């Protein structure tokens, strides 16, 4: 019995059970809410790096589908336990997954991201994930953008009414029948900048319409 109820087995079960439930929940929530899409230019015709804050992630896969009209994206997700559920959440919705982060599997996921962009696929990344600090920008995103010269598109979700989880990322859960404001920034490039300048610009773009907890 101890083996059956071990921590590893419980985590494996949760990683399989919770994502389908979460997908049903998010789609019902998305259906009940009013949506407003804010964008100056649609850059979906070019393989791009879609950047978003970890705490705003819940509704953004559906916003990406609306923006691009396709599921041509590989999300970079950590190898931590939370990443297991996130990976299944993405794959069940037709997206691809690249597993790794700066602390574990960084080189492998970096090479895989380059290959995805070369093959015409988008990359999705939360630069402050998987463990923060909140609204920080790790080097991985800008390194990929510099090497490939791919455009970066900042994505934000700001609901009119929401719950905030007590987590490091202040994870945002919109309330039913609220208004979801989705922001898609104009594509920008960082390959002619140094690393510090690129990180500062990515953070600035993502903070322009960032959700803030009450």
Structural features, described:
There is one protein chain. This protein is an alpha/beta fold and 214 residues long. The chain has a single domain, classed as Cobalt-precorrin-4 Transmethylase, domain 1, CATH 3.40.1010.10. The chain is 38% helix and 20% strand. It has six helices and nine strands. The strands form two sheets. The protein has a seven-stranded mixed β-sheet, sandwiched between helices. A two-stranded antiparallel sheet has the order 7-8. Strand 7 and strand 8 form a beta hairpin. Helix 1 packs across helix 3 and helix 4 packs parallel to helix 5. The longest helix is centred in the first third of the chain and has 26 residues. The termini are far apart. The mean pLDDT is 92.
Oligomerization state of this entry?
single chain
Helix content: 25-40%
- The shape, in one word, is globular
Contiguous runs where pLDDT drops below 50 for at least 5 residues: none
Q: What is the mean pLDDT? A: 92
- Cα distance, first to last residue? 44 Å
The strand order across the widest sheet is 1-9-6-2-5-3-4
The CATH architecture category equals 3-Layer(aba) Sandwich
> What's the CATH superfamily, by name?
Tetrapyrrole methylase, N-terminal domain
The major β-sheet equals:
7 strands, mixed
At the first level of CATH, the class is: Alpha Beta
Percent of sequence in beta strands:
15-25%
CATH fold group: Cobalt-precorrin-4 Transmethylase, domain 1
Helix/strand structural class? alpha/beta
Number of strands: 9
- How many helices? The count is 6
The secondary-structure element order is: HEEHEHEHEHEEEEH
Q: Which value, in Å, is the CA radius of gyration? A: 17 Å
Number of domains: 1
